[in-house]
Specification:
Length: 520
């Protein structure tokens, strides 16, 4: 008896020794002779060797390492996988729930491809800003699928975006809805006010596994201008409860009034750029009042997600060339793109939903909003604000916010607004990781972190087009050739080249109706 115990103890001791020594033998996968580009480094580390073991970065060395498998990184760049901290994974962009129901083959193919599309464009971590444990579990049943986290949406019971969901479904879609005391008289059966106080809602999110809180200040989109907005004290209580639980608070806020409210109530992140205004401002210029809000964003170090693709995506609905862009064919299945072009897929022309109808009269206002959010982003970048990368995919039920590609286009918007390649890279990696309290796991190429990595032919600190040269996506240590993630990978290896030959930054493929700035 004692003998067998001592054998077990010896075996355990040996195992511990072997585990300490894993760096010596030829274990794991080694990326050799690669240039590591990681946000904590003042300069890229050339001729580096990176060992991946058990889904993690096990070793980073300037001396040659050997592994069971080897990937030659000569002339290549290794970066952290990208983080998109603002997506919505519940819907297929451009498809309404009833349409999805009546086209099961189209929607099945789309849902299988969408996780791969995010990976194709380098996004290995996503945050759904309005989800539930059940929805996230469904999403994670795909393989491969990016690492995905969620915020609970603390939306006012009759406020935005709850009003977009029919009753009583809205109370299931928004289990973390907020009830303010004065609204008590109008509660539907089954909704108890005490269960929807800010502290209770945050506690429920936390125990459900949310890593953040999303809340909203929106008086109205499109033709609606009368939505209820929360009381400041409600949101201050929500923020205090969230911080006590270790959760950052992101606030949907895209107007001067909303961003002021977010700053006044202590939100950690304004989850949109500043583009709406109640002042009659016909141009995209920043007014002194807007600049003073942006100055506060800098002073208070509030996170700020420009989400410029919201405006560009709405604009692209007017573009007949959008559906034949070759990049879309790599992003979504052909059956879905064909459906988008069908009469049913063009439903938004009917104007049933004011946010998405394509009324040409809306174009000048859209253009002013694009200019304003771009100017605001550039203003903040110049002053060292904490810009955070989020694409808001899709921002509305529109097909012009395609998964992954929408984020890639958002990167171009940042550069066009005057943000440096370095600041963009930090926003896509460590700055998002820190905001989400995930920086111990992801955001840099350092030993101990999850091996979510990208191998690229060009350096993203030199040019945003480097993100089009991804060759391999490493997901929890598993190398996936980019071509395998393309929606058209059946048609050959050309999927790994982006942009395709003939498609240049000067010829973005997307028609922009008013001939405004090229987006690259
Ligand atoms: Zn959003």
């Amino acid at each position: 008896m004692s003998r067998s115990v001592s054998l077990v103890a010896t075996a355990g001791f040996c195992f511990a020794l072997c585990a300490c020594a894993t760096q010596a033998p030829h274990s794991g996968l080694v990326i050799s002779d690669v240039t590591v580009v990681s946000p904590e480094r003042a300069a890229p580390l050339e001729h580096a060797y990176v060992r991946i073991l058990d889904g993690r970065i096990a070793q980073l060395s300037e001396r040659p390492l050997r592994g069971e498998a080897q990937i030659d990184g000569t002339g290549r760049y290794l970066t952290p996988g990208l983080i998109d901290s603002h997506v919505h994974l519940g819907a297929i962009p451009g498809m309404l729930p009833n349409q999805e129901h009546s086209h099961p083959d189209v929607s099945r193919a789309a849902r299988e491809q969408i996780p791969r599309s995010y990976l194709y464009f380098g996004f290995t971590t996503l945050v759904d800003l309005n989800s539930t444990p059940a929805a996230i579990a469904r999403w994670k049943s795909h393989d491969p699928v990016p690492d995905t986290y969620f915020c609970g949406a603390a939306a006012l019971i009759d406020g935005y975006p709850m009003v977009d969901a029919p009753k009583p479904e809205r109370y299931e879609a928004y289990p973390y809805l907020l009830v303010e005391p004065q609204a008590g008289a109008f509660l539907p059966p089954g909704v108890e006010a005490a269960e929807h106080a800010p502290q209770t809602v945050v506690a429920r999110m936390k125990s459900d596994g949310a890593i953040c809180v999303k809340t909203f200040f929106e008086r109205g989109l499109g033709d609606r201008h009368d939505l209820p907005v929360p009381q400041p004290e409600t949101i201050r209580t929500l923020v205090r409860a969230a911080h006590a639980a270790g959760l950052p608070v992101l606030m949907h806020a895209n107007s001067a009034e909303a961003q002021t409210f977010g700053l006044d109530t202590g939100a950690d992140v304004l989850a949109h750029g500043l583009w709406s205004t109640t002042e009659q401002v016909a141009t995209g210029e920043l007014t002194p009042a807007m600049k003073s809000i942006l100055d506060r964003v800098v002073q208070e170090n509030t996170g700020w997600q420009p989400t410029m693709q919201v405006m560009y995506g709405l604009n692209d609905l007017f573009s007949p060339g959008f559906l034949s862009d070759p990049r879309l064919a790599r992003t979504l299945p052909r059956s879905l793109i064909e459906w988008y072009g069908s009469r049913e897929g063009q439903w938004f022309h009917d104007g049933a939903e004011s946010v998405t109808k394509t009324d040409p009269a809306a174009l000048p206002a859209l253009m002013a909003q694009r200019q304003r959010v771009s100017a605001a982003t550039g203003y903040l970048a110049q002053r060292g604000a904490r810009l955070l990368f989020g694409s808001d995919t899709p921002s509305a039920p529109i097909y012009t916010n395609p998964p992954g590609l929408n984020g890639r286009l958002e990167m171009n918007n940042w550069i066009a607004a005057g943000v440096s390649e370095k600041k963009l890279f930090h926003a896509l990696t460590i700055d998002n990781a820190r905001m989400l309290h995930l920086d111990a796991k992801i955001g840099t190429v350092e030993p101990g972190k999850t091996a979510n990595l990208l191998l690229l032919r060009d350096n993203p600190l030199r040019s945003v087009e480097a993100y089009d040269t991804i060759e391999t996506v490493f997901l929890r240590g598993r190398p996936i050739p980019r071509a395998e993630l393309s929606a058209d990978n059946a048609s050959g290896a050309s999927a790994s080249t982006f942009p395709a030959s003939g498609e240049t930054a000067d010829n973005p493929g997307f028609l922009i109706v008013e001939g405004s700035n090229p987006r690259g």
